[in-house]
Write a structure and sequence with these properties.
The protein has two domains: 229 residues, HUPs (Rossmann fold, 3-Layer(aba) Sandwich), CATH 3.40.50; 91 residues, 2-Layer Sandwich (Uridine Diphospho-n-acetylenolpyruvylglucosamine Reductase, domain 3). The chain is built from twelve helices and nine strands. The longest helix is centred in the last third of the chain and has 30 residues. It starts with 10 loop residues before the first helix and ends in a 6-residue tail after the last strand. Its EC number is 6.3.4.19. Belongs to the tRNA(Ile)-lysidine synthase family. It is found in: Cytoplasm. One of its GO terms (molecular function) is tRNA(Ile)-lysidine synthase activity.
Length: 349
Amino acid sequence: MNQSPNKNWTPLHDQLHKTLRQRKLLPENQRILIAVSGGQDSISLTKLLLDLQSKWGWYLAIAHCDHRWRSDSEANANYVKNLATNWQLPFFLAVADRVYQSEAEARKWRYQTLSKIALESNCQYIVTGHTASDRAETLLYNLIRGSGTDGLQALTWQRPLTENSSLLLIRPLLEITRSQTGDFCQKQKIGIWEDSTNQDLRYARNRIRLELFPMLRQFNPQAELALAQTAEILSAEVDYLENETEKLLEKVTRMDIDIDNLNISELESQQVQYINRLVLREVPLALQRRVIRRILQKVLPIHPNFSHIEKLTNLIDAPNRSQTDPFPGGAIAKVRHPWILLFYIGNRE
C-alpha cells in the first residue's frame, strides 16, 4: 500500500476524513481514479487522499487529460507524471486527438476519456478537485445566465458519469475553498502547475473569480462558502421537488378521463399530449412549472425557457377554448377542459 511522503497532519485532513465518513462518498477498499490537472485543487486532493489511504485501504491512481490548448501542455503532463512517480501512484495520460474549440466539447471528451481509463483500470470511482469556490462560481454563472433552481444547485457531491454508467463522479472538496487548497500546497511544500488560461478574462468564469469575487468579499469575507452552502441547500430541495414532480407527472398525463368527445379533428393526424388541468390546479406553482417543463422538454427542439413554461402554465386556469401561439418547432397548446392538449408538430422523438 502506498504511504504518504509527508506525515504532517492538518485540519484539512480532518475535515476531508469527516466529510467522507458523513457523506459516504468513497467507501473503504475501493479503487479510485483521481483526475489531476496539476493545479492546486487537484494536487491538494491527491495529497489528502494519499495521506488518508492507510485509514481507508483505497487503491489510488492518477489520470491526466492533455487538451493541447497551451504550448506548455506537454510539460504540464510530464509534471503530473513525475508527481505520480514520486508518490508511487499509477499514472494514465490521455492526449486529445484534436484541439476542441469550446469548453463544453473539451469537458465531454475529458469525462469520456476518464470513464474509459476508469473502466480499463477497474476503478469504480472518479474523483475531481472541484472546491467550494468552483461551486460558488457555478452558482453565480448560472444565475447570471438566468438558470432555474436546478442550475443554481451547481456542482453536486456525486453523480453517475452517464445515465446508464456504474461509474460515479465524486467531488470530495466541496466544503473547502480555493484559498485553503493554496495554503495547503504551500505549507506542504508541494509545487503546482500554474495554468495561464486561468488568468484570461475572456472566459466568464475567470472574470467571476478574478473580478466579481473580490468585490463580493467586501460585503462578506466568506462569500464563496456562503454561496456554496446555498448551492448545498438548493441541491437537497431540488432532489425533493424532482421526486414529487416524477410522481405528479404520472398523474397529470394519465388517461383516465373519456376523451372521445374532444373535438380535435383539425389536428387529428398529429401527436397529442394530454395534460390534466384538474390535477395541476391542486398543487403549488413550483410543481406546476416543473411538470410543465418536463413535458415541454419532450416536445420542443430546444431547452424550454421561462417564457415557454409560463405560456403553458397559464393555460391551467385559462378559459375553455384558450390556446397559445406556436412554441419553437411549431407545437400549439389548446384548452379542452379538463385537458390541455399539446399538439406535436412532426415526430417528437
